[in-house]
Design goal:
192 residues; seven-stranded mixed beta sheet; 6 helices
């Protein structure tokens, strides 16, 4: 995926479900002159997602879909993304699994950040699993999204040492700090 010529940035949508710390970080990154992306749209499946405040604060359009009727909602989302000429979707703590059909329509243009060193610990509770298995390292991965959960091509990874005193909560905080560095770096790598 290449950045369009000139200084035009790639129109990007960020999908969130919660606090939106990665969204906040991506917005900050998008405002840097050398950033290849412009965040045009934020989507949430959660009416109470704190992250929506970052969209509001930065005058970014947002929509909320509860995914009760996944098929209908996804079709509306696809229509909206097309209308807005969105060329990249960044999943940032988005807790819904997108359908194969949705992913196919945006093939190679959806990236996700996952709080483990994939292929280890796909899905949820990654920090608990890493500690229970006495791993020395945890970390995060930015990867392309495919129809198979957390299985797409890896763009970048960052390791974090697990200390004896670490709990799932302390490990989550350490990994999140690295996520905030890794996501912008991975996006730069995609467009270079």
């Amino acid at each position: 995926m290449k950045k369009s010529t000139g200084s035009k940035k790639v129109k990007t949508a960020v999908f969130i479900s919660g606090t939106g710390s990665n969204l906040k970080n991506l917005i900050k990154f998008s405002l840097i002159k050398s950033s290849p992306i412009h965040i045009s749209f934020v989507l949430s499946n959660n009416f109470n997602a704190k992250g929506l405040n970052f969209a509001i604060k930065n005058n970014i359009k947002y929509k909320i879909f509860n995914f009760k009727n996944k098929n209908k909602d996804e079709n509306q989302i696809l229509f909206y993304l097309k209308k807005k000429k969105i060329n990249l979707i960044c999943l940032a703590g988005f807790m819904k699994i997108l359908s194969r059909n949705f992913i196919k329509k945006f093939s190679g243009k959806i990236v996700n950040i996952h709080p483990s060193l994939l292929p280890k610990y796909k899905g949820l509770n990654t920090h608990v699993k890493a500690i229970q298995n006495n791993d020395n390292l945890a970390g995060c991965t930015v990867h392309f999204v495919t129809a198979r959960l957390d299985s797409g091509k890896i763009i970048l990874q960052k390791e974090v040492k697990i200390l004896k005193k670490d709990t799932p909560t302390s490990l989550a905080k350490k990994v999140l700090r690295q996520e905030h560095k890794l996501y912008p770096a991975a996006i730069k790598k995609i467009f270079n």
